[in-house]
Write a structure and sequence with these properties.
The chain is mainly alpha-helical and 187 residues long. 70% of the residues lie in helices and 0% in strands. Pfam families: Sigma70_r2, Sigma70_r4.
Length: 187
């Protein structure tokens, strides 16, 4: 048996048996639950999302590659997909009843309710990535990019030249991109 086939057929270190799955759940379950709860806004659905995440992870354990990403990053990628699936199922059930009136009523009733799941997930990912960079870099990004304040104003408030603030912003964005890459987020 070739070495690559042997490696892929064995359970990865993160999910090799029931005890390993339990350890992964203990290490990451609460964090995955908070993520799902924040995205779905329903404790029951969040619990279902975490359960489905570990079930999918167990079934796809042979596809986990610790050289590509950590077990945590891999589990978050799975829970993100589960959350999207659950939110879509929920929004599909929320289509309005089509009335028997004229064409205008029918067209208006066919518009689905807006699905803001992707926006919630993206906000959470940015928040998580911001927590992984230095406080100085986080401050620059929050002030200039998220709050839309001019570099001059933030620089004056911080007591540094505007050019220095622009350099900090450049390196802060680089650090944020690295943090998001580490989380498995692709832009």
């Amino acid at each position: 048996m070739p070495a690559l086939t042997r490696l892929r057929s064995a359970r990865p270190p993160g999910l090799r048996d029931e005890a390993a799955v339990q350890a992964a759940y203990t290490a990451h379950g609460a964090e995955l639950y908070r993520f799902a709860l924040r995205a779905l806004g329903d404790p029951g659905l969040a619990q279902d999302a975490v359960q489905e995440t570990f079930l999918r992870a167990w079934r796809a354990a042979d596809r986990f590659d610790p050289e590509l990403a950590s077990l945590r990053v891999w589990l978050f990628a799975i829970v993100r997909n589960v959350v999207i699936d659950l939110a879509r199922r929920r929004s599909a059930a929320s289509f309005a009843h089509v009335p028997g009136g004229g064409d205008e009523d029918i067209v208006a009733a066919l518009d689905p309710t807006p699905d803001d799941t992707d926006a919630v997930v993206n906000r959470w990912l940015v928040e998580e990535a911001l927590g992984r960079i230095s406080a100085e870099h986080r401050h620059v990004i929050v002030q200039t990019h998220l709050r839309g304040r001019p570099y001059d104003e933030v620089a004056a408030e911080s007591g540094v030249p505007t050019g220095t603030m622009r350099s900090r912003a450049f390196y802060a964005l680089k650090a944020l991109r690295v943090a998001m890459d580490e989380m498995g987020v692709t832009l």
